[in-house]
Amino acid sequence: MQYSGTLPGVLSSSDPRPVELVNADGRADFVLVCEHAGTAVPRRLENLGLPAAETLGHIACDIGAEGVARRLADQLDAPLFLQRYSRLVIDCNRPFSAPDCIPEVSDGTVVPGNLQLAEYRRRQRYAEIHEPFHREVALFLDRRATIGSPAVLVAVHSFTPRLAGGPRRPWQLGVLSNRDRSFAGHFLDSFQERNPATVCAHNEPYVVDDQGDYTIPVHGEARGLPHLLLEIRNDLIGVPDEQRRWASLIADGLIDAKEKIHVND
To answer: Which of 76, 101, 110, 158 could form a disulfide bond with 62, CB atoms 3.0-4.6 angstroms apart?
Structure first.
């Protein structure tokens, strides 16, 4: 999908690039992606009409996920793709057709700047933020495939302990997959064995599917790569020490799981 209109774009020269690649030369087989890392809002969108506090909370980004992902990249020596813009601007883990790709309401909060958005405005955001981010991920994975270098795709997310009006979510860690559970299953088994007191589950509090997700279906399943999506409860990873601890626990489980599926064979 390419937007070729003549109106001013969404991003200006003062706005950040949509993607930040950390540890590009990492030697691990793992490739990490954090689609909900950022809270940036393009200057031209005037904060989407929201108070500043709303653009920093869980409806805007996955709280703590970037910190865990960065520390995981360090511990594994893995490349990491960070998406810099708020998912209220556009959710880079949704296909364009998903209703919440550009949400009008998120966890009960109305997003004024997204109400009755014209189709061409939706396409602008997708073309300027979503597509460049996933293009860089795809090119990186293409290069790995070309040289025969293995890749295990790991998406890092966090979730809030309770949505507005909803029940408390008891899980501390969710391990998500869809058509191919093999790598997720190995990881979950290893993690639970190492951390028996941690409340873990497969496909909680969300599931992966083609309508509500992008990274795993497009970059993981379609390429036949081992993959999983991690959901860590955000009240457990709010500070650097907690992020470091969780990254260490997750790294051990990922290494175990990779050995079990014989990725290098």
So the answer is: 158
d(Cα 209, Cα 207) in Å, to the nearest integer? 7
Tens of pLDDT, residues 139-193: 999 999 999 999 999 999 999 999 998 999 999 999 999 999 999 999 999 999 9
Buried b vs exposed e over 110-121: b needs ≥16 C-beta within 10 Å?
ebebbeeeeeeb
d(CA 169, CA 163) in angstroms, rounded, equals 9
User: Mean pLDDT over residues 247-256, rounded?
Assistant: 98
Nearest to 128 by CA among 97, 98, 83: 83
Q: Which residues, in sequence order, are CB contacts of 265 under 8 Å at separation 6+? A: none
For residue range 55-112, list pLDDT tens digits in order. 899 999 999 999 999 999 999 999 999 999 999 999 999 999 999 999 999 999 999 9
Strand partners, 230: 156, 175
Rounded Cα gap, residues 223 and 98, in angstroms: 22
Does residue 95 come out as left (phi exceeding 0), alpha (psi in the -120 to 50 range) or beta? Answer: beta
Amino acid at 188: L
CA–CA gap between residue 65 and residue 251 (Å, rounded): 14
Token representation of residue 76: 């594994």
d(CA 158, CA 114): 23
Q: β-pairing, 80-83 with 173-176? A: unpaired
* Domains, the chain: 19-261 (3.40.630.40)
Q: Determine the number of helices (DSSP H) and then strands (DSSP E) in the chain.
A: 6, 9
Q: Are 31 and 142 in contact (CB under 8 A)?
A: no
Q: Which H or E run includes 231?
A: strand 227-233
